[in-house]
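Z., the sequence and structure:
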Amino acid sequence: MKNSLKILTSLFALVSLLFISSCAYDDCNETVKYQVYNPVYLTKAQLRNVEILESRALKNPGKIYVFGKYLFINELYEGVHVFDNSNPASPVNLSFISIPGNVDIAVKSNILYADNYIDLLSFDISDPENPKYLKKVENVFSTYKYENPGLGYLVYYKATDRIEEIDCSNITGDIMWESGGGVLVDFSNTKDGGSSGGNGSVTGLGGSMARFTILKDRLYVVDNSSLNVLNIEKAENPYFVNKVELGWGIETIYPFKENLFIGSNTGMFVYSATNPDKPELLSNFVHAVSCDPVFVVGDIAYVTLRTGNNCRGIEDQLDVIDIKNILNPLLIKSYKMDNPHGLSVINDKMVLCEGEFGLKVLNVKDPKDVETKAKIVNKHFYDVIILDEDDIILVGNDGLYQYKLDGYDLKELSAIKVETK
C-alpha cells in the first residue's frame, strides 16, 4: 500500500502545474502565465504546534461554521478565525486559532473540534476571545496519508505564479508538455468549502460541503475513503471509536434524522446511524463521476454535480432525488446549472452556490418544476449556510458575505473580505 501511495503521489506531483492562458499554436515563442503547484510538507511536530493568537485578516477561506452568535471561518491549512456575529451587519474579529493542516471544524457544548491533518483536536470556546486548547486524539486521520521520512506529511500544494516564454509546439488543448516530460494540467476551480453540524441547541451548523458532522453524541468525519467515528458524549473528552471503510472518492457528509448522507465522486451513499458506533450502508444513488455535496429536506435529497474540478466531472447539474424509500433512492429530475457547489434549502427556497458564476435562489416547492428566481453574478461563492428564513452566510474565494433574504431578493448586510497583500 505504501508503494502505491508513493506512486500516486509522484503522479500527482507530475501533474501539479496549472496552465492558465493559451497561446497561438503557430507561434512557438509565446509568453504565457501559469501556476506551479509546489508540495508543502509538514512534520508531526509542525502539525501539532497549536497556538491561540490575536485576530488576524482572512486570506484563504475554507469551511464555515456557526455556533450560537459566533461564526468560525477556516483559514485553509492554517487554522480557524473566530468572529462575534451578534450583529450580522458588523461581525467582530475576536481571535485566531493557529492549527497547521486544518480544513474542517464542528462544535458541541462550547467545545470546538478541528483536524490538523492527522489528529483530532478539541478546544474550549466558552470564552471565544480566548479559546483554550484541551487535547488531541492522535493519528485518527493519518491512514493513507503520505509521509516522507525526511520531509514529513504532504499536506497540500501551494500555487506560485510564473510567467515565461515557452515552446508552443508543446501545447495540446489545455495541456502543456515540457521537454523533460512534465505536464501542465488544468486543475481550476478545485477549492471546496466542506457539511454541516448536527441540529439542536448544543451543536452548531456548517455548510453542505463539510467533512465533519455531529449526530447525537457522535462526531462523524469522512476522509477520502473512510468514515471515522468519535464519541463526544463528554464533549471535552472525545475519543476514537471506529473506522468504516467507504471506498475511494468520498467528498462530504450530511446528517438527517438517524441517517448519514455521504457525497462521493460517483454518487450518494446513505448510512444508517441507528447503531451510532457502526453505521451501516442502506443504499446508494449512482451518478456520473463528479464532486458533489448532498443536502436533505424531508423526502428529498439534492445533489450537485459540476465540471472543472479535480474530480474531472462532465456535468453541471442539480439532481433532485426521492428518498421516501430510503432503501431505493430514485431520481426525480436533473436540472442544468452553471457550476453548482454548496447549497442549502429552507421553506421551499434553495440558495445554490455557482462558483465563479455567483449564486442562484430557486423555488424548489415542486421537485418536478424547480425554478430560478434570482441570481448574483458578480461574486464567487462555493458554500452557504441559511440560519433562518432570512439570514444567509456565504463564502467564496474573495471572502465571506452575509445577506438578508426578502422573498427571493438578496440584500447584502456585510462582507469579510480576504486580505489581498
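The chain has two helices and 37 strands. The chain has a mean pLDDT of 85.

Let me know what you think.
H.
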